[in-house]
C-alpha cells in the first residue's frame, strides 16, 4: 500500500483529476540588493541563476535560481525557460529597481509582527557541516541546532532578513 496523504482539517483525500500534472514550481521573495542576494544564494547555497527577466515597463527584474545538481541545463534561452517552468524547487527573487540605492528600503520578513510568510528550507547532507559552511561565509544564524529543543534544524538569515531553515538529511 502506498502513502497518499495524512489527515488534517480540510484535507481532501481524493486528488481531483483536473490537477494531474500540477507541479509546485517556485516561490518568490522581494529583494533589495540583487548583487548581495545573488552572491548569497549562488555561493552559500550553490544555486544557479537559471533565468533573468527584466521588466522595464514595471521597473523590476526577476531572477530564477535552483540547485541543479547534475542536470543538463539547456543553453538555448527558450529551452531553458521551459526547463525552469517545468521543474520543482525554484526560488524567484524579485528586485524592484532603485531599492538598492534607498537606505530605508526593507521588506517584511514574515516572522516579525504581524506574522505571515515564514521561511524557505534547504535539506542538507550534514547539518553540522552546513552550519560550519554558514559560519565560514559569515551567515547570520537565527537558530543554531544546539539552541532550543529542535536539534535537527537550524535557521539562517539571507541578506534581506528572510529565514532559511536547514534540515539534515539524516
Automatic annotation (TrEMBL):
Q: Which domain of life is it from?
A: Bacteria
Keyword Cell division recorded: no
Q: What class of enzyme is it?
A: lyase
Any idea of its EC number? 4.4.1.5
Q: Which cofactor does it need?
A: Zn(2+); Ni(2+)
**Gene3D superfamilies of this UniProt entry?**
2,3-Dihydroxybiphenyl 1,2-Dioxygenase, domain 1
Against SUPFAM superfamilies, the record matches this protein to:
Glyoxalase/Bleomycin resistance protein/Dihydroxybiphenyl dioxygenase (SSF54593)
Q: Which reaction does it catalyse?
A: (R)-S-lactoylglutathione = methylglyoxal + glutathione
Does the UniProt entry include the keyword Oxidoreductase? no
Which is an annotated GO molecular function term of this record? Answer: lactoylglutathione lyase activity
Give the UniProt family note: Belongs to the glyoxalase I family.
The identity of this protein, by name, is: Lactoylglutathione lyase
Q: Which organism is it from?
A: Salinisphaera aquimarina
Amino acid at each position: 500500500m502506498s502513502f497518499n496523504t495524512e489527515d488534517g482539517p480540510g484535507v481532501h483525500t481524493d486528488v481531483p483529476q483536473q490537477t494531474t500534472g500540477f507541479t509546485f514550481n517556485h516561490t518568490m521573495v522581494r529583494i533589495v540588493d540583487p548583487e548581495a542576494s545573488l552572491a548569497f544564494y549562488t555561493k552559500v547555497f550553490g544555486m544557479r541563476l537559471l533565468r533573468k527577466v527584466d521588466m522595464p515597463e514595471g521597473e523590476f527584474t526577476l531572477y530564477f535560481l535552483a540547485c541543479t545538481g547534475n542536470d543538463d541545463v539547456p543553453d538555448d534561452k527558450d529551452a531553458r525557460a521551459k526547463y525552469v517552468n517545468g521543474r520543482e524547487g525554484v526560488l524567484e527573487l524579485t528586485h524592484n529597481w532603485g531599492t538598492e540605492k534607498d537606505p530605508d528600503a526593507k521588506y517584511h520578513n514574515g516572522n516579525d509582527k504581524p506574522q505571515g510568510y515564514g521561511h524557505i528550507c534547504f535539506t542538507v547532507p550534514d547539518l553540522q557541516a552546513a552550519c560550519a559552511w554558514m559560519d565560514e561565509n559569515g551567515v547570520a544564524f537565527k537558530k543554531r541546532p544546539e539552541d532550543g529543543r529542535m536539534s535537527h534544524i537550524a535557521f539562517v538569515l539571507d541578506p534581506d532578513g528572510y529565514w532559511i531553515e536547514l534540515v539534515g538529511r539524516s
